[in-house]
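I would like you to sit down with the pair of lines that follows and say whether tokens and residues agree.
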Amino acid sequence: MMDATSLDGTVLIGVQCEKYIILAADRQCHHQNNAISVADWQTRKITTHPRLPLAIANGGYALMESGKESVSQWIASQFSAIGDSLEPDEVFSIIVDRLWPRVVERRKISRESGASPMHVTLYAGLASNGSAVLKSAKILDNEPRIEEVPACLNSSSHLTAFYQELLDNHEDFWGRNSANIPTHAARLREIIKAGVAQEAVLRPGLPPTVGREADVVVVDLVGHLEF
């Protein structure tokens, strides 16, 4: 079953293939206060482990509760703190457990400021027991669950219908029939760019919540490649 979630301000795509996982994400981030955009910037939303076959894409809140450190920066710091003596799925579980109370605090701050609380969704491409696996965790107030999914598509809420139509009408939306990995990476980048273009049509004159550059990372049994 595909995992699909609407987020405010990100597009994440993940596909589990026979020998690899491919993750794609846009770079646009924005901070909102009472639905008014007060800042926007570009940041990577896919963090790769320096030594293990593990990459984590994050959507939802871009900043930790301090408002100074991005979620992707925090994940990178956890990779360093945890080290590389554990299996990739164990590292991912630890990160989810450590991030959960931070997200709870972040949601509390949002409520107190009058903003709608969001969440953090994580997608991990990793090697586990000789297989490439795609795992997901949606972090809210309650204890998060980690699940294995064959594919994932997360987008800003105003792009949900657009992407659903692409899913329904494109025979190979996920790109699994691509001739090779670079072609597959290009396919997912095109999907993200299509959403960026559609948002400009749907929200003319408003600050973008998705877009500009896109990152694509492939994780196989021995490491990762960036496209």
